[in-house]
Write a structure and sequence with these properties.
The complex is a heterodimer of chains A (111) and B (116). By secondary structure, chain A is mainly beta. Chain A contains no helices and eleven strands. Chain A is globular and about 40 Å long. Chain B has a single domain, classed as Immunoglobulins (Immunoglobulin-like), CATH 2.60.40.10. Helices cover 0% and strands 51% of the residues of chain B. The interface between A and B is medium-sized, with 27 and 26 residues.
């Protein structure tokens, strides 16, 4: 039973570019959440998707957007990249009120 | 707004010694509390959770945590630490009526080093 899978594992971009990160939830899960983890910090909630709709959003600018597909997989898009967007981006999936399961993340570096 | 404080940034213990990692939370309602562990280059693995009921919860890898409402604390403990326990530990509080599936607010983490 595959857990949460994220792609790519590493990514290097330059300032001003756009990036798309992908996440496949654990089998049977219907909710996907995205977190940003800066170096030496705890993860910070970006947003959550359920039934293809954004259900909750953290304190992140509109440059961060997402999507959930009918098969429950999800994408995180970041436009106009800034140096401060360099971080580990974690995807987590869950079912109803059960705890979230995390993927290994995508390490995004901005030059 | 909910928040989590982990007062200890780094902790070093000897293998076989006991461990307690501190966590204090701020949340207006009954909290849903979690401990996750993160090894270098990895995602987060759930150690244990508290939703309701018994305030002493057991988790994986021999860890346990105690919820103390009066102290707004949810400290993680292990009676005998193994070298493989070296990692970063995060306490988190979940919002919303559906608890674990909703927005998690994390502390800044405690880095555990185990001396052989």
């Amino acid at each position: 039973d595959a857990g949460v899978t994220q792609s790519p594992t590493h990514l290097i971009k330059t300032r001003g570019q756009q990036v798309t990160l992908r996440c496949s939830p654990k089998s049977g899960h219907d909710t996907v959440s995205w977190y940003q983890q800066a170096l030496g910090q705890g993860p910070q909630f970006i947003f959550q998707y359920y039934e293809e709709e954004e259900r909750q959003r953290g304190n992140f600018p509109d440059r961060f957007s997402g999507h959930q597909f009918p098969n429950y997989s999800s994408e995180l898009n970041v436009n106009a990249l800034l140096l401060g967007d360099s971080a580990l981006y974690l995807c987590a999936s869950s079912l109803r009120d059960q705890p979230q399961h995390f993927g290994d993340g995508t390490r995004l570096s901005i030059l | 707004a909910q928040s989590v404080t982990q007062p200890d940034i780094h902790i070093t213990v000897s293998e076989g010694a006991s461990l307690e990692l501190r966590c204090n939370y701020s949340y207006g309602a009954t909290p849903y509390l979690f401990w996750y562990v993160q090894s270098p280059g990895q995602g987060l693995q759930l150690l244990l959770k508290y939703f309701s009921g018994d305030t002493l919860v057991q988790g994986i890898k021999g860890f346990e945590a105690e919820f103390k409402r009066s102290q707004s604390s949810f400290n993680l403990r292990k009676p005998s630490v193994h070298w493989s326990d070296a990692a970063e530990y995060f306490c988190a509080v979940g919002s919303g009526v559906t608890g674990g599936g909703n927005k998690l607010t994390f502390g800044t983490g405690t880095q555990l080093k185990v001396e052989l």
